[in-house]
Amino acid sequence: MRTLTTIARGAYLARRLASRKRADCTTLQQALDEGLKLYKWDGKSPNPLVDALHYVCGTLGGIPGAVDEWADNLKKADSAMSAAAEALNFKTSDRRGSFGTMAYGTSYGGGQKRPGLLCHSKHNLSILQHLMADRSIQRIVSFQSSVFAFYAPKLYRDYATNMDALHQKYPELKYNWRTSVFPAVSFNFGPRAVTVEHRDHGNRAVGWCAITAGGNYDPRLGGHLILRELGIVIEFPPGATICIPSACLTHGNVPIRDGETRWSITQYAAGGLFRFVDYGFRTWAQLKQAGNGLADKVLEERDGRWLKELELLSKIEELHADRENAGLLK
């Protein structure tokens, strides 16, 4: 698994690596000229991403249920996203691209003493909560979490165990939706939400980021998902969901054409949340102050901890058994 070289010591986060020099989105022709292989995907058929060691390291999740029904849900989500984008007050563009984006949920990092909710103005908070209550949006995020559970059952169960513990310790923190295990979500409103190639190094290193695309664009000509280390560029139709380890894989989108629109919804988890729980709900400084050899034990285990994290991924031939053992099959 080549992406393991990007994991930071301790294996909670990915290493911050130098960004690619290209400031704009990579075009499809540029990606092909650089040796990436085009994967033509209909956006409906599930297809796990399996490495040479048989680990499922991501998946093309497809869509749930009937095509026509999901297309109708996507239209409703498109209207909800458009209405929210009109009402929100955006301060700056995201570092990943020139489009309006808002994140919501539980965060930890950047010197925080403990995990907390991402802050918003009263106006924006009201708009975001209204968007999150929309049934079409709830169906999307629920499906994202279901895809995660189906293809990474051990990792999913680990998320649930850690988030449940965090919420019990701090009752003001809670799931964004009762049907999703992810602690954070980003709404990328567009109208041309395509990202330059990047890694989300603050996310959990082996964790998955669930991405659902929407809008009105031709997926054969733009909106593709580039996975640089895997050497592929994937057609990413509106309505489809893909899960990837966004902290370790360099990823981005092919630009869409003038006059087209694209938005996306992503769910993810900060790696620091799991570290905070593992440290007994303490920062590293607090752990050292606690004594009792706790910090020394962490240091002893740090360099080999990535092996423990790797075992949370399922091998393709063990997926069914892992689903049963995780209690995800009825």
From TrEMBL:
Protein name: Uncharacterized protein
